[in-house]
Amino acid sequence: MLQTIQKAGELLALFDRDHAEWGVREVAAQLKMAKSSTHDLMASLAKLGFLNKTEENRYRLGWRLVTLSETLLATTELRKEAHPVMEDLATQYQETIHLAVLDDTQAVYVDKLEGRQAVRVELTSLGARLYAHCSALGKVLLAYSSEQEVKRIIQIAGLPRFTENTITDPEELLQNLIKIRKQGFAYDMEEILPDLCCVAAPIHNYTGQVIAAISMSIPAYRFKRSQTEFREGVMRAAKTISKRLGYYGSS
Amino acid sequence: MLQTIQKAGELLALFDRDHAEWGVREVAAQLKMAKSSTHDLMASLAKLGFLNKTEENRYRLGWRLVTLSETLLATTELRKEAHPVMEDLATQYQETIHLAVLDDTQAVYVDKLEGRQAVRVELTSLGARLYAHCSALGKVLLAYSSEQEVKRIIQIAGLPRFTENTITDPEELLQNLIKIRKQGFAYDMEEILPDLCCVAAPIHNYTGQVIAAISMSIPAYRFKRSQTEFREGVMRAAKTISKRLGYYGSS
DNA sequence: CAGAGTGTCCGATATAATCGGACAAGGCCC
DNA sequence: GGGCCTTGTCCGATTATATCGGACACTCTG
């Protein structure tokens, strides 16, 4: 691991919705580096477009990140194949649809379509990350990972509690994942937010591997009314996308 | 400039729509580095999420770029203030609206709304970059930059020709920019693509500085029919956004 | 089964990131 | 307005670190 790159990674990690702007000194303090080294690092990142220097000599994230992000999304065929299917699903149910992949220990939203109902679920945006153990998407992605990978993720990320329904016992989670794999879908019954339910299903590529998951998010009162129908819609969509990606597995 | 960061920048620049996947050796050849050093660099970037290692040990861009990009967009108040105004404009004219900032030598799309007419303009996506000298957005952004900055940009990026209307003479461009600044808007009369016209206007922030530009893209036949109306719409929108950002300048 | 291709790992060397300090510029209070 | 505090930037010596060539394991191909 190159230390300079590591430092750059830590530096970029400082930027979030609540801390959009940083000065050299603040970063130096946070990263426990000399102010001069920090300046070298930040100036370099700014020159390359990863950071943006304001008039007051403070720093924000740079537009090159947007360009790179768009390149990634444009070249991910998963997204290209999934999007029209997601649109069909959104049209049919008028609920919020998400597409996610597993990245390190968490699920990352890769695409999203918002429902148009009056009461709708709207929490997250593209690129947002979710704990895997308490989201339907995350649990599906875990269910198709190796047991040692799941254990590694639990080890690193833990199983923090968000609601009274969150699964916090490793053994219970592992049992749950086996069931999900057998069924081919996962529920999130208010495990991350009260009043929010989701159902997710796995997307396979041409090698048969599960590379992503698709989900529908629905307010609890609406979800419990027609759970089976939502589930079948999501599973049908997941299978359609898998086929488009060259998967010819079961059914 | 830290060399390691510089190398990381060059490496990430290799990834585009036509080259979404790279192996260690290919990158080493391209960057004229030893394969082992290249491996160290790529492995580090991958560990931090900036690259994604495929099963076949090749590398793609990593999802963390999407997360960072979203953070940037979410924390840019320009975008927050501009979006609703862009929506109004899109509703009224049903044409494609762009929001862009100047990044280094080029204009970068920061937000976009697509028109819903049958024949519409659809070339670019969020984060895409445009030469400044041949787009309405770019010319507006240049017009409010210092002359030395404009000269620097011409020096580095050049004035490549795309259509017979493209301005390729530095002196002519500089004269054009003075006029644009005086008028408060810029046209792109098929200077980058035949049959595509645009009109753009500057967005000021609370310090009076021009920090962005907004544009409307219209097929040439439609544009020439009601040029003045399109122009006034865009200029009105630009002024509304500027006011929202705290600008109390002229009119 | 041999060969050429790949990515990965290792240890010595020389380069490059680091640090402390000095400087300049801006804001603020008395 | 002058002094004081803060900020970011620059510089040169030192030490830590990225670099390189080579060896290895692996996969695919002929």
Task: Provide keyphrases for this structure.
homodimer; 251 residues; alpha+beta; 6-stranded antiparallel sheet; two-stranded antiparallel ribbon; 10 helices; 19% strand; DNA-binding
Quaternary structure annotation: homodimer
The interface involving the most residues is between: A-B, 50 and 51 residues
Could you say which structural class the secondary elements and strand pairing of chain A correspond to? alpha+beta
Give the uncertain stretches of chain A in residue-range form. 118-123
What portion of residues of chain A belong to β-strands? 15-25%
Characterize the structure shown.
2 copies of one chain form a homodimer. With 251 residues, chain A is of the alpha+beta class. Helix content of chain A is 47%, strand content 19%. Chain A has helices spanning 3-13, 24-31, 35-47, 64-75, 77-93, 136-143, 147-157, 170-183, 220-225, 227-244; strands at 51-53, 59-61, 96-103, 106-113, 129-131, 186-189, 196-204, 210-219. The radius of gyration of chain A is 20 Å and the shape is globular. At the A-B interface, helix 1, helix 3 and helix 4 of A face helix 1, helix 3 and helix 4 of B. Chain A binds a DNA duplex (30 and 30 nucleotides) through helix 3.
Produce a short descriptive summary:
Chain A is of the alpha+beta class and 251 residues long. Helix content of chain A is 47%, strand content 19%. Chain A has a six-stranded antiparallel beta sheet with strand order 5-4-3-8-7-6, with helices on both faces. In chain A, strands 1-2 form a two-stranded antiparallel ribbon.
